[in-house]
Design brief:
Elements (H helix, E strand, L loop, with lengths): L2 H17 L11 H11 L11 H4 L15 E4 L14 E6 L4 E7 L8 E4 L9 E4 L2 E8 L2 E8 L3 E5 L4 E4 L12 E4 L5 E4 L9 E8 L4 E12 L3 E4 L5 E4 L13 E5 L4 E4 L12 E4 L11 E4 L2 E5 L4 E6 L3 E5 L4 E3 L14 E4 L4 E5 L2 E8 L2 E9 L3 E5 L4 E4 L16 E3 L2 E5 L2 E5 L2 E3 L9 E2 L2 E6 L4 E7 L8 E4 L2
Antiparallel strand pairs: 1-2, 1-37, 2-3, 4-5, 5-8, 6-7, 8-9, 10-11, 11-12, 12-13, 14-15, 15-16, 16-17, 18-19, 19-22, 20-21, 21-26, 22-23, 24-25, 25-28, 26-27, 28-29, 30-33, 31-32, 32-35, 33-34, 35-36
């Protein structure tokens, strides 16, 4: 098999990695089968640039520098495999003044699919906590790509001043990948759900106390969740929505409110309008309107099971509002996304607007604890919800034929997104130079900035290596 053929296999399998990582390994369909599906289901899409250079290109040698206040740390997020050279332990940072990347230090453990939270209490205040995630590598053999890895129970704190990392004392009671991490007002960090070593969704909730420097089991979710959301509400409770709760990928429409003070969880007054996983949930803030303090839920995949442990996942355009005062969801009077998308990023702009960027369109078939195929592609479009006007518009103009204008510098999914002042930085992910079909895409090292005033994107250089599921944090 030639290097270009290996690249094509990795490109086509990359989206399956993005949509469902099974920890014991997954295998994509063979190329000829995938090509037949693509020919039948994506006839209308033109050939696209799969950004193969992003897969086989050597790492970028960045200058070594010191991150300053307000700069953006990028921690982990790569896959260390034979044909993907990203090292998950590398820490880069984005200098917001020069709009360039530089190299900081390293994490003590290779991680992908972990989150980053800036600590506010204890001797490690202003350090960045990174917990869990997974380590793995891509193995290509003949016409299949396999991701092998395991979830981690360890954690570490990264000091942006000293540019080094130290392991936290103790470990999580349950190793977990793609768990949610929520910084609580009391300085503790809430770690919930995620995928366990057997690929099952996790029910337990744990906390990390930076003062006591230890982990503790804080309670249980009402049901296991992975691919869910966690949103801190103004009253200190945490809203958990949706996610996968079964071994065969069926999402749930349920939601619950966890009270960290009591360690108990109660169900929302009603379910979401549809079952969702891989969606977004963002607290509305700064609009000075009646929707301030409510939570906007959008996109994601809606799946249904058939034939035993098999599921068909479809991207959704649904948008709902959750009212913490009544604990109820409603989609009545709420505009829907102009384009179906799942695994998109959603970032509050701080003025009542929320930016949705990238994601996946189409469908995926999941069975026997692995993805069997992807009939869709990666988006390079974005949308903005304005809570003050209750409107949801495409960035760059009106939608045509259920597609928003292609305004992003790259199509992206499972990328990182974080607010930088009024703007938003997007980094890495899996994607290409334009909207893709047939699941095409490759790991990206590129980044772009969204200008919230002009509502435009521009490229802002590249990281040292490609990253998926990167952890991002603002240097305090």
């Amino acid at each position: 098999m030639t290097s270009s053929e290996r690249s094509r296999v990795l490109n086509r399998c990359a989206l399956a990695v993005a949509m469902a990582i099974t920890l014991s390994g997954w295998e994509c369909l063979s190329l000829d089968v995938r090509d037949r599906y693509q020919a039948e289901l994506n006839k209308s899409d033109p050939a696209v640039d799969l950004a193969q250079d992003e897969v086989i290109e050597d790492d970028v040698e960045l200058p070594l520098a010191d991150p300053g206040k307000g700069d953006i740390l990028v921690l982990g997020g790569g896959l260390a495999g034979k044909y993907e050279s990203a090292k998950t332990g590398t820490v880069d940072f984005f200098d917001v003044k020069s709009e360039k990347f530089a190299k900081s230090g390293k994490l003590g453990t290779n991680r992908v699919g972990a989150s980053a939270v800036v600590l506010t209490k204890g001797s490690t205040a202003d350090d960045v906590l990174v917990v869990g995630g997974g380590s793995g590598e891509i193995v290509i053999k003949r016409d299949k790509a396999t991701l092998k890895g395991k979830p981690l129970a360890t954690g570490e704190t990264y000091d942006p001043d000293k540019e080094n990392s130290k392991p936290t004392a103790g470990k999580l009671a349950t190793a977990r990948l793609l768990a949610t991490q929520t910084a609580l007002p009391n300085g503790k960090v809430l770690i919930a759900g995620g995928y366990a070593a057997d690929s099952a969704a996790i029910r337990t909730i744990e906390t990390f106390d930076p003062v006591a420097k230890k982990y503790s089991v804080a309670g249980n979710l009402l049901q296991p969740r992975a691919g869910h959301t966690a949103t801190l509400l103004p009253d200190g409770r945490v809203l958990f929505t949706g996610g996968v709760s079964t071994d065969y990928g069926v999402p749930t429409p349920t939601a619950e409110l966890f009270n960290p003070a009591t360690g108990s969880s109660s169900p929302a007054s009603n379910n979401m309008q549809i079952a969702l996983g891989g969606h977004s949930a963002v607290l509305i803030e700064g609009c000075d309107c009646a929707r301030d303090g409510k939570v906007l839920i959008a996109g994601g995949f809606n799946g249904f099971g058939f034939g035993g442990e098999r599921t068909l996942e479809s991207a959704s355009s649904v948008v709902m509002l959750f009212d913490p005062a009544t604990a109820m969801f409603t989609s009545s009077g709420v505009p829907q996304l102009n384009e179906e998308r799942m695994l998109q990023t959603a970032t509050s702009l701080g003025d009542g607007r929320i930016l949705f960027a990238g994601g996946v369109w189409g469908q995926g078939f999941y069975g026997e604890k692995k993805f069997q195929g992807v009939y869709g592609g990666i988006l390079n479009s974005a949308e903005i919800y304005d809570a003050a006007t209750n409107k949801l518009d495409c960035v760059g103009g009106k939608a045509k034929n259920d597609k928003c204008p292609q305004t992003m510098a790259n199509a992206r999914v499972v990328h990182g997104a974080i607010r930088v002042g009024k703007n938003v930085l997007l980094v890495g992910g899996i994607g290409a130079k334009s909207r893709t079909s047939g699941g095409g895409g490759a790991p990206l090292k590129t980044a772009e900035m969204f200008n919230a005033d002009k509502e435009t994107f521009k490229s802002v250089g590249a990281m040292s290596a490609a990253r998926i599921f990167p952890a991002l944090a603002v240097v305090p």
